[in-house]
């Protein structure tokens, strides 16, 4: 259990980290941070939890999922502040993810320029709105609308016994 003089209550942790108490409880429920409980059931967090919350916030800012952050945190010691070597190893693995995300965003930016410049808004040709369109081989238009129209027409024929007209 963290020593009372070197630990933080949830309120102190919230104030010092800028993270809401509800978010701290949420992260604790997900196993991203840990606390100990006093005899009165008050949460006490080790001071190094501040660093974990800062790293967690940085990971969220670059688009990492909580599962990805949790997997990274699983490589770090839970009972003490990580060493510089341990933080460096974690940041190196995240750098590759951030670089990949930057490449994806740059590609998206290029697609936006193409789409906005072209103005076609064609679902058959637009790689931004309709990438890898497998339905294009069936011709133009929505398959779902045509299927629904066909089903309604067939239902109308069955209900009246006629083909209309």
Commentary on this structure:
This protein is mostly helical and 165 residues long. 55% of the residues lie in helices and 5% in strands. It has six helices and three strands, in the order βααββαααα. It has a three-stranded antiparallel sheet with strand order 1-3-2.
SSE blueprint and pairings:
Elements: E1 7-9, H1 10-17, H2 21-29, E2 36-37, E3 43-46, H3 49-61, H4 66-73, H5 84-118, H6 143-160
Q: What value does the Rg take, in angstroms?
A: 27 Å
Give me the number of helical elements: 6
Strand content: 5-15%
Q: Which bin fits the share of residues in helices?
A: 55-70%
Count every beta strand, where a strand is a DSSP E run of 2 or more residues. 3
Give the integer mean of the pLDDT values.
78
Largest sheet: 3 strands, antiparallel
Low-confidence stretches: 157-165
What is the terminal-to-terminal distance?
83 Å
| Structural classification | mainly alpha
- The coarse overall form would be elongated
């Amino acid at each position: 259990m963290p020593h009372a003089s070197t630990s933080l209550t949830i309120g102190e942790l919230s104030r010092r980290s800028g993270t809401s108490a509800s978010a701290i409880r949420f992260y604790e429920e997900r196993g991203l941070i840990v606390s100990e409980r006093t005899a009165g059931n008050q949460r006490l967090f080790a001071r190094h939890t501040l660093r974990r919350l800062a790293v967690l916030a940085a990971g969220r800012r670059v688009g990492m999922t909580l599962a990805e952050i949790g997997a990274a945190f699983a490589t770090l010691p839970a009972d003490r502040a990580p060493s510089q070597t341990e933080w460096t190893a974690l940041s190196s693995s995240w750098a590759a993810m951030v670089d990949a995300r930057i490449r994806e965003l740059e590609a998206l930016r290029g697609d936006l320029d193409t789409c906005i410049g072209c103005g076609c808004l064609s679902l058959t040709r637009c790689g931004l709105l309709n990438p890898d369109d497998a339905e294009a081989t069936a011709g133009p238009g929505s398959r779902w609308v045509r299927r629904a129209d066909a089903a309604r027409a067939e239902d109308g024929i069955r209900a009246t016994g006629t083909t209309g007209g």
